[in-house]
Queue: 4 jobs
Job 1
Amino acid sequence: MKASALFWKRPESLRLHAPLVPTIDQIMVEERANAFTKRSLKTSAKLAGLKMAVSMCDLTTLEGKDTPGKVAYLCRKAVQPIDAKYEVPPCAAVCVYPNLVKPARMFLGHHSPVKIAAVATGFPSGQYPLRTKLEEVRRAVADGADEIDMVIDRGAFLTGEHTRMFDEIAATKQACGAAHLKVILETGELVTYDNVRLASEIAMRAGGDFIKTSTGKVSPAATLPVTLVMLEAIRDHFFATGVRIGMKPAGGIRTAKQALAYLVMVKETLGDDWLTPDLFRIGASSLVTDLLMQIVKCTEGNYQAADYFSLP
Amino acid sequence: MSTPRLEVKKTYKLFIGGKFPRSESGRYLPAHSVAGTHLDNYAHASRKDFRDAVVAARSAAGGWSRATAYLRGQILYRAAEMLQNRSGELVSEIARSTGAGPAKARREVSLAIDRLVHYAGWTDKFAQIFSSVNPVASPHFNFTMPEPTGVVVVLAPDEPALLALVSLIAPVILSGNTAVVIASETFPLPAATFAEILATSDLPGGVVNLLTGQRTELAPHLATHMDVNAIVDGTGIAELQTTLQGGSAVNLKRYTRRDLKAADWFADRAEDPYWILDTVEYKTAWHPMGV
């Protein structure tokens, strides 16, 4: 099916141009995002928050040197992050390159609580022909991926070819079949919050199940303000359509404290409905170690050292 | 008639990772002279400040331990130079805190400088002297050599506030360890001033971190922190020693007591090169001969 045949999915009345999406007040969005870091979570609420954060982690390895062994290690860690006595839930997913989906599926089997997410569509740049991007997606899904993390063509977006971006996302969604689609906006390359808002809008309307901040390969990656802009886009989309879109900040979230700030922001922007791994994920690798260290600290009472925890 | 100038009171801050933050808790304490006059205020460190200091010390440990012994020596020597330049400041700080006469205060500062120079010289010598080539019954070279243990908590005694502090820190950091130092509780101001001087030397941020506050409050957390590799306790306070030693068991951290009387810190005893060995680990390596 040609991608252009998917045009009909775009509502006729909606022209995806900047004036039709709200503009973002940069100063206030940063102020508001900063306010979420001031909330104080203590004792049992903190412990519950830390465990929830682990359950929302997409344990990620996206390196040229990744091997099936490394992926197996990551899967094992995702299934049981720490000694069972701490009652920590498994991570939401492992996130790998398409070639490593097969080894991950072999290790996890078909009934694992841990999902397999594959980055695709010419990750991380997205500067590839649509045909090969879609082939990549179909192969990853056939190999056993539950979720596809696609990158948008930032070049297309920035030159104003919003319809091409829309069509690529829609075509990718179709190629995904039953697999969930996360759309990576790579906010670090979108320059302004207005662009982030517009790109979020396009991604949600084109069929993305999740919108995701970053590949982790570009700095800045996820930040609180940029995530807030996207959460508000999700909220407005829900009010307009009744459809719940998920959110995944990724990259640069390394400490438990940061993770808790994100959870607070989700709760105060979208409400408790979104506080589930089905609708909120954190893309990270070293974060899990810090979460586990804080969980042990909360349980045992003494400060922990990374030496006693598994490698990220 | 002119009004008398309003004196500017200072609040001494903590020294963590090369920066001077206030206590995370927002607390501070008044510093008094022996006679009871209010001198200035200083930060009252909480356990979270201690945690932050350990994080800073841990992240500084890699770079500092990999620096060449020669460079570490140069940097410690440079710290002594900075101390020399600003000795007047320290002399008056000690004098107004402890009530010591200027001559006595000057003696303490001079000795502190000398001690830094003394230990600066040890950086590129202790490894030769304390290493060994061991005879083994196979065609191998067998070496044993010291390596820094990691992050060390140093507790200074109340007196002499500056000299004991310097004499405790120098042998810890010269081998490549990083330190979190708990200052004298009765006279914290000379230690805080020393930290301000260190910040202007070439010592990388995080190699020495200084907390002021109450030792008994911090002690359980110092003792049980899993990321602390050793404790050097110069306080000589029995109750504190029990807490520290008990807590140390959780990760088998090294615990060393230096029970010196105030006067002993002025003597040769306090420049003991064997003190270096209390915060190193020995590594033995086998190397086949003829390869």
Job 2
Amino acid sequence: MGIAEARAMHPDIDVVEADPEADRRLLEGLADWCDRYTPLVAIDGENGLFLDITGCAHLFGGEKALLADLMARFFHQGFDVRAGLASTPGAAWAAARFATGHILAPGSERNFFARLPLAALRIDARTKASLESVGLRTVGAIMDGPRAPLVRRFGTELIERLDQALGRLDEAISPRLPVAALSVERHFADPLSLIDDIERLIGLLAATLKVDLERREEGARALELLLFRVDGMVSRITVGASRPIREPTLVRRLFHERLATLGEGIDAGYGFDLVRLSALSTARFDARQGDLAGEVEDGGEELAIFADRIGARLGEAAVLEPATVESHLPERAAPVRPYAQEEARKGLAGRPKREVRQAGGRPRQADRPIRLFRQPEPIDVPATEIPDGPPLNFRWRRALHRVARAEGPERIAPEWWREDADAPTRDYYRIEDAEGRRYWLYRQGLYSAKAVPRWFLHGVFA
Amino acid sequence: MATSAVARDVVFALRQKIAKIEGTLAERLVSPADGQPVAGLLVRRNGHASPRDFFLPTGVERLDEVLGGGLPKAALIEIHGTETRNAGAAAGLALCLVSGMLKERSRPRDLVLWVGTTEMFREAGHPYAPGLASFFGISAESLLLAEAPKAADVLWIAEEAARIVEIAAVVVELRGNPRSVDLTATRRLHRRAQDSGRPVFLLRQSAAPEPTAAPVRLVVTPAPATLRQTLLGPLAGSIGAPVFAVEIGKSRTALPGSFIVEWNPDAHTLAERRDGSENRIAVVSSSRGRAHPPAQAGAVLAFKPAVGEAAGNKPSREQHPAHRRPRRTG
């Protein structure tokens, strides 16, 4: 039926364009919210969710109570949901669509499916139509029939779906998010809305988490805080640690920084009724032995906490440490990476630089600038003394600099073992201008009849 | 004059007393009697302190003398660069001082934190570890970098870092005059430095001087570098050790003054510039690796070539695109 016909029948009909993207976002939001029941939530097509509640039902007072709680909460959020519970994903799918609210006891799938139409099997429309055209209208009609002709006629998919529905074949759902190694949560009858309360709660949850981590002899490298709002919104807040941690005070301080940055970013609304703290990744925690006075030898712990706090407030890349890598290209020779402790450093790419020592014991290096621009800045060079020589003057950021002295060139060719091996070579010059500022310039490419090479300013000397 | 001499004596005694009560470093006083700086005027903090704990000697004798022994070690030290394009010079002087600071510490792992705003690093260049290692001996392992978009966050990082024992010195770099960098902010940084006993260097690029809690403010401008030294003497036209022009903008002890200091990248020491300004522009570099050409016997006259150019003397075709033009014959 077209819009015109519909309007003819109901003149005051409201027409809204379909927005699959928004539908998808909504479904993902619901999936996030369903995390409160189980960490294994998968999105099924355009309008369904799979929840694997294996081992979770007893937390909510049994399967029946869980299903009732889920339906009631969705209803209060304003959603009309159909839910079914069964021991196979296929049966649960059918139960949700053809017998909402039904809980299938294990082993009762055959009886349940016998009465259902073929659409309950999640098969494509063409297969369904051709089965119906020969009079096979219910699952029961094909369940006990010979399998070989069915496979020959309709392919293996039909039989596979049937076996999955009846539990003869295992079917795995693919959860949206990885399951945290450990998580602790607390439900509230009266929702929390103050950030201070949440912070205090983090301390309590972390104390519980610490016991579990101690048992596993591990510490957390990444922690996630999930705040479930009463109206179904879920906030995820993640912090990382540069070395495994488990002290509740530390965890609380890290989240304190993170929450301080988010500030208004967390909308408490009507409050949070479930708060969960999970350890996303864990690593071996080496307990240190204290000396006689009870003082533990500290190996940069303070520094690690400092880096973590800054990372929590300003993002992982706020504290960086430079590395030296063997490369001719200046920008590649000193990559920076987020600060991490020794354990995390192992296995990082990049061979450490071999130091060429001279008699004095100091590594011998070519003169390099103390500041380098991430993007070399193009400069305007009106004239050079000789074609392959340094510029006489140059214009950088609209200011003219007269070159007083120049050293060079130092030719740096692209590294042939990399993909950009055919990039033009660079001739670097150390330049001092008339006022004593020292720069590192380069000419990209060589002079030729065809093109005039461009000049760039790449660094600044002390 | 007699009354005024007595008054000066009283003032002198009182200032000494105040310094003693406050437990701070006494100001460098000139004895009213003979006009000589008074020796032994140092008030010791907590009864056990030596001048080495108080001062970070720059190594420039005249500057140290004017500052009364060096820059205060447990303090905020403000270093101003006049323009953003002078950022290399201002950072250079701070790194000279940091390098000196690292040399006298003996912990197994001393770190230097260089923190600045994102804008600052984008405008003046990111710290480059190989250059810092070759000029100042600050290895990549002992360098930590931090950047934040806002000046307030940068100050927060600096304050937190000043507490940490592993971090020997903090270099804070800011551009312009953000509102969050006021007297209170500098006082906080100064207090942190005082508590920890380690310096915090506040680099301010292209900023107008503002009231500051830092006891010392140095204004740095670039100066022409020295020449490279060779066995045959200075090499004309070369760029050798970095040189900075340092001006004392504010100091509780020193009179305003300006100094031209030179950093020795091999010995890692600062010194006053040796060779005045005789090494200005030399366009042609002298021959390297060979003896100097002998002096000319007489005036050199330019003669026209007697015969036509030899074929070998012709510039190559690639060098002169004009030669490649097709020659049209009538």
Job 3
Amino acid sequence: MTMHGFLRHPGSYRDPRGHIYVAGSDIFRTVSNDVWPEFQTIRPVLARFVDEGRLVAFEEVDDAPDDRGHTLRHPHLPFISYPYEWPFEALKSAALFHLDLQIDALKHDVTLSDASAYNVQFIGAQPIFIDHLSFRPYTEGEYWTGHRQFCEQFLNPLLLRSCRGVAHNEWYRGSLEGIPTSALNRLLSLRHKSTWNVLTHVVLQDRLQSRTQKDATTADRVRSKKLAKRSYLAILGQMRAWIARLSPADRDTTTWASYAENNTYDDEEKAQKRQFVRNAVARYSVGTVIDLGCNTGDYSRSALDGGAKRAIGFDYDQQALDRAFLNAAKNGTPFTPLFLDAANPVPDQGWRQLERSGFASRAQADFVLALAFEHHLAIARNIPLSEVVDWLVSIAPFGVIEFVHKDDPTIQKMLELREDIFGEYSEDTFRAELLRRAEIVETQTVSRSGRTLYLFQRH
Amino acid sequence: MRKATALFTGAAMVASITPAYAYLDPGTGSMLLQGLIAGVAATMAAGSLYWAKVKSYFSRKAEDQTKDDLGK
């Protein structure tokens, strides 16, 4: 039966064997008739991955967006994020997860036809695979088809930080298919290139690719050769062992990574903030919390303690994000920390600017936290206070915003070498702007400098 | 014309070898590299397996020794 109301997801166009459709809050996947028999043969392996929590669940349904095949229904994931939003530790965790999945699949004679990082999503800090049609039966002797893509979308961005101390996020955001091996090869030093793994997967791969590009016979030559299964498994295993050892090269602690320990609050003030957040969230029925300036996730945890189902944190400090991710992964907290420059959020982009959605369309939550945050936009980035309030209130119907006074040490530090051009910046202006858009439910002053928490309910 | 036919046959053959689901270009560089490192990778994997066995043999011996010592 062909049903109305199905909308094909604009990002689902690459693989003609099936497409993703969205109808209301349901996600559907078509599987074309010609690959259905093949899909049936690997189905037990996929079912096993679903049971293990590594693959999004699926069930066959009669409703169909088109008449070209069969349809699967999937549960809706609470939040979609992209590799250019993931901190290093999240990308590393996704890479290891992808390799483990491939290794286990291959043991059951199933392989993955690609290695797109966008096929991995996070529930909390737990990776999950979302593309069922990436799996297919393994043919004896075949190569790791996704190797090049794996390098561009997982390995190279990790090497950029691990060899050079440069985070992948901004580059990846501009180059959605990842970081090209040829570009990374130009950036690495002789010291990096003298290690076996970099020498082979970066230097040699790039040389071989550029040398054979114009040679018409190469494609036939490689196609006639076969890769033994034990070699395939060995390459995957060694890639896994290598990535597991990678860590960021920038080890000097950033201001914000140690913020949770060394900030201008004392312990009592922090405890007050935690309690305020917990009580505020507990007043409402909260599914998703968006925590702007999440740092290592302290207040997201308070929100979860207050009954929120999940928290998505955003920050621009890479080290704080890495810590936040590792903590959440270790404790199984439903908290996903992501990279965001709030003054330049991720846009709608990709093919027709519809393929990957921007921050604004995804960041709709039930509750927003903006603690020790607004002054980073209003003072450090010169954004008018009215616009900062407008943006914060647009994210969720309820939330807590902390107002920081101009004589607070952090603002004084920001203005140390600058002229104070922020005549409008005051708590009175802030309160007036907030009242234009929301009801102020409760306030509490939490520091000696007068930092005040505002719980709001949007009009 | 004959050339065109030959080309077409060639292309058809290539198409029949290339799996229909390979919508992704694996890249010649990646495939050549895999061919080159395949042997080394498999040997290293076998070697590390052997090494793990050797290590576990000795650690088991050491463990037995400790147990013996404790027994005394």
Job 4
Amino acid sequence: MKTNGLTNNDYARRKKLAKKTGKYIVCIIIAVIMLFPMYWMFTTSFKTPMNVAKYPPQWWPNPWTLDNFVELFVKRPFLKYLWNSVYIAALATLGVVVFSSLAGYAFAKIRFKGSNILFMVILCGMMMPIEVTIIPIYTALSSLKLADGHLGLIICPMFGYCGAFGTFLMRQYFLTVPGELVQAAKLDGANQPRVFMKIMVPMAISSISTLIIFTFLQSWNDYLLPLVLLSSSEKFTLPLGLTLLSNEDGMKWELVMAAATFSTLPILVVFYMCQEKFMASLSMSGMK
Amino acid sequence: MTNEVKTKRRKTRSLEYSDSVWGYAFIMPMLIGFLIITVLPVIMTFVYSMTDKNMMSRTTNFIGMENFIKLFSDKTFRSTMWQTLEFTVLLIPSNMILTLGLASLLKDKFKGCGFFRTAVFTPVVTSVVVWGVLWKYIFQTDNGLINSVLKMMGITGPQWLMNLKMAIPISVFVTLIKGLGMNMVIFIGAMLDVPEDYYEAAELDGANKFQQFFKITLPNIAPSIFLVLILTTIGSLKVFGQVKALTNGGPGTSSYVMVFYIYQMAFQSYKFGYASAASVILFLIIVALTILQWKMRKRWVFHED
């Protein structure tokens, strides 16, 4: 009989197949657990109020509606929040990239007195959490009448954790660039700014994009600092707009989920377009 | 000849001199900004912590250690410390075990591994507020997803977020799911650095996968594990956004954690001096953990040599 005549080879193959199937089942369960909350957020934002309150829960919106998003854009200033979030994150990122690559390059490739000590000082900044410095930052900004504004939200990441991490990251990269390259360019009569702009920055694009992803995401998702600083609602960023909505009396979940979807979607789209880079960038910030 | 060498030397020296000027110029913006935005506030937090600075009175008095004494006699602060500890103790082991498991599951290339990694990583890119509000919705007593599903199975679900004993465990769960992807990616990187021949040799000796994991993988990625351990601990001491969005510290003060307490004292009660004292304590804990990490890392680097 064929069935009794299985060779060892067949057994091994079956065992391998069973193992593989088991692995896929486990992976699929994990993926469902991780993605289902996001799916729930996404679909709820397209439901009508009546269907949100339905029992048993409606797994797939029927009918789909855009009313929640229309309300966010027309009756509530979510486009304004979007703009605030975008331009604050963009300026903070620009600042971090410029100042960190300048400093990182100087620490890696230019010899000057005290560079090691000054680098250590900035390195220590990576362990100073904003949670610890936020009270003096608030009192200083409010005594300058700048607390309820975007300046603090732009410069705090620039010269705080993000800036320190950026300086470290860029220095690590520039250390790998051969020194002869700088020497050769200087013998050709290029001064340091020229070397930096023409040779170093183009080479460092990969590290710079890591830094852009990291800083933009930090600023986009930042919550504590805008919560503490901003008081007038037209200056709010997306996370604050979302909490404002969710703390209202008679708050509507479909509307809150629409706001959550709206503030997550842009990041998520970019993330899915370049996931490898995202994962590498963010985990690098953990590795230091 | 000698003159030529001399001029050359002079030239390089002047080049070096102009270089060091550029060096200072390049670091200046970052350095000055950093001193104002980071170093000065840290010092000010220490100064404030010894004053009675608040928003109500114009004058600020030096009161020495009084804030610290008051802190430790404050019942809310003491329970805040316990809840922060509870949060950390619940989060760290579960995070480490799950992320190590996920990393060894997803480290090898197979069809779809990219998709699964991305799935696990997706919550990392969401903001803590979105994530917290989303789970608040899922954990609603009436009409929340979890209780609806329980109801379909004939079970009356508990009042999750209204329950004094549940507030911290739920916050831990929500934080845990959000952070898995980050540590997983770090561990995958570390695991892929372990030389393949170690496993081949072990395979020849008849070691099974579990033995390989405990005898080869774990010892070889120990430095990464320690690093992740410290970073995750620091992160869990600083948890704020999820808790604020999920429970707002409640019910009562049952989910107050360190940063939440600082936030309440500083920006709801406007007791800046008092809140700064709490910040100083948080700061000292974080510094201690960071120094521990640096010390241990040096040791490991030494071992590797």
